[in-house]
Design the sequence.
């Protein structure tokens, strides 16, 4: 499924009727965040806790009424990365930055979302296997590794099939 950049920036609770309505967090010019549900100010750690609890929310700039949830989440990630044990290496961040503005930017976003979803799904399966006393540990690990390899190969093959879908108009006139 192909989604536009704007669709990726909309909080799921705003488009999925099965989810509870998003909790509104207002960001004031003094950089303070106000939780309208609890009628209290929250910190970035408080927002992180909402994420961990899977509480639907959106952050709105009080001056412009613009949704800035992504910006706040990126700020939280930045602070977590600075605290030690970073998830993103410098090399990985540089590679991601190089994708911005390229024809493959949307493909990278979709790929990362699907990869993380697959990783979480496999993590659940692995945990389930570990909880079963009759299953040897090497069996689920081997199975997960084989599934990962298969999915990576399929994704790479799909890129080989459609490389011209991302060509610029100027490139098609040259060749």
Sequence:
């Amino acid at each position: 499924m192909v989604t536009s950049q704007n669709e990726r920036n909309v909080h799921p609770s705003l488009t999925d009727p099965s989810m509870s309505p998003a909790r509104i967090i207002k960001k004031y010019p003094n950089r303070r965040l106000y939780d309208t549900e609890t009628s209290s100010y929250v910190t970035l750690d408080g927002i992180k806790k909402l994420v961990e609890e899977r509480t639907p929310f959106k952050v709105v700039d009080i001056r412009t009424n613009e949704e800035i949830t992504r910006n706040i989440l990126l700020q939280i990630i930045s602070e977590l990365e600075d605290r030690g044990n970073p998830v993103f290496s410098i090399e990985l961040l540089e590679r991601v930055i190089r994708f911005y503005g390229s024809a493959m930017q949307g493909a990278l976003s979709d790929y990362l979302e699907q990869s993380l979803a697959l990783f979480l799904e496999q993590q659940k399966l692995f945990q389930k296997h570990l909880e079963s006393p009759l299953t040897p540990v090497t069996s689920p690990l081997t199975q997960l590794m084989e599934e990962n390899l298969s999915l990576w190969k399929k994704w790479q093959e799909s890129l080989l099939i459609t490389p011209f879908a991302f060509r610029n108009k100027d490139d098609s006139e040259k060749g």
User: Anything to note?
Assistant: Residues 10-82 form one domain.
